[in-house]
Specification:
CATH architecture of the largest domain: 3-Layer(aba) Sandwich
Number of strands: 12
CATH superfamily of the largest domain: Type I PLP-dependent aspartate aminotransferase-like (Major domain)
Structural class: alpha/beta
Number of domains: 2
Number of helices: 14
Largest sheet: 7 strands, mixed
Strand order of the largest sheet: 2-8-7-6-5-3-4
CATH class of the largest domain: Alpha Beta
Helix content: 40-55%
CATH topology of the largest domain: Aspartate Aminotransferase, domain 2
Bound molecules: pyridoxal-5'-phosphate
Radius of gyration: 20 Å
Length: about 350
């Protein structure tokens, strides 16, 4: 039976061509900065995002951690979304390993952080308080794309308040494709950006952190300390480079499939989907709690896997085809017409 795995866009498998590219990659010791494939990837992502330098890291979690460690000192504070990956899903790394205090705020409906609410939590220069240093945004946030106008306003706000601005852009490539703009147009608003190669882009491993030369120099030290100094990592970097060069524009197909999926599933009375929130490759569904487990079991019998934490989550990616969409919709309809 064919498996249709919609739990996450991290589940993509490297294509045969990608494996061949990895096997043929030129490599060296990256701790000596002598891996040509890693250097090529870092330079390429820096250029794509309009930054001076890039750093290849094993995961998005490490990339965000290194960014926070480089921006903030012990006793500093960063403002972040209550449901942000950097706050909620990274094991409290910034606090545990960096003695950096998070100041979480609820995300707005559109995935932004309200600048007035940020203003209200910036701490005065007083020994009672942690020093507010950084704002960390997320784009896409639960599949939603931040507007360019908002990001420009956030950059201006950060600068006026002497704060740095970091983007957890694990899926910033999805945002750029959805808006039809270059990565540079989004990334220009941030001091630093972390992007994942291992999600919809389809590489097996890795993220890249970009910023100024000076910042990346600092981040490089932290990467080593975190145990992220890899040796012949070019086999992985080559996959990332190929993913960016050949599987970037393809993200539009994932977005179209997510939209078709949402429109089809939205016809089912027992389900509630906000189509305005389906902007990239993610579909979130409100489904009566008591039906979630039997629904997921029913789907699983047909080889269809979906995610669920409160809401159901379906994510399209490289390994989901056009023809899978009606199959999934039909399986949902079968369940609800029983
Ligand atoms: C996936 C993800 C990350 C990084 O995750 P890793 O699994 O560590 O690569 C960071 N931020 C967001 C928003 C993510 O979705």
């Amino acid at each position: 039976m064919k498996r249709i795995d919609l739990r996450s866009d991290t589940l993509t498998l490297p294509t045969r061509q990608m494996r061949a590219t990895m096997a043929a990659a030129e490599v060296g010791d990256d701790v000596y900065a002598e891996d040509p494939s890693v250097n090529r990837l870092q330079d390429y992502v820096a250029e794509l995002t309009g930054k001076e330098a890039g750093l290849f890291v094993p995961s998005g979690t490490m990339s965000n951690l290194i960014a926070l460690l480089s921006h903030c000192q012990r006793g500093d504070e960063y403002v972040v979304g209550q449901d942000a990956h950097t706050y909620k899903y990274e094991g409290g790394g910034a606090a545990v390993l960096g003695s950096i205090q998070p100041q979480p705020l609820d995300f707005e409906e559109d995935g932004s952080l309200d600048l007035c609410k940020i203003k209200a939590v910036i701490k005065p220069d007083d020994c009672h308080f942690a020093r507010t240093r950084l704002i960390s945004l997320e784009n896409t946030q639960a599949g939603k794309v931040l507007s360019l106008a908002y990001q420009a306003a956030a950059a201006q706000f950060a600068s006026e308040n002497l704060l740095a601005l970091h983007l957890d852009g694990a899926r910033v490539c999805n945002a750029a494709v959805a808006q039809g703009v270059s990565l540079q147009e989004i990334c220009q608003h941030y001091a630093t950006v972390s992007l994942c190669l291992s999600k919809g882009l389809g590489a097996p491993v890795g993220s890249v952190l970009v910023g100024s030369q000076e910042f990346i120099g600092e981040a490089h030290r932290w990467r080593k300390m975190c145990g992220g100094g890899m040796r012949q990592a070019g086999v992985l970097a080559a996959a990332g480079l190929m993913a960016l060069e050949q599987q970037f524009e393809r993200l539009a197909e994932d977005h179209a499939r997510a939209r078709n999926l949402a429109e089809g599933l939205g016809q089912i009375d027992q389900l509630c989907i906000d189509l305005n929130q389906v902007q990239t490759n993610m579909v979130f569904i409100d489904c009566p709690a008591e039906l979630q487990e039997p629904l997921m079991a029913h789907l699983q019998q047909q080889g269809i896997l979906i995610g669920g934490y409160g809401q159901l989550r379906l994510v399209t990616h490289l390994d989901i085809q056009d023809t899978d969409i009606p199959t999934v919709i039909q399986a949902f309809q079968d369940f609800f017409s029983k």
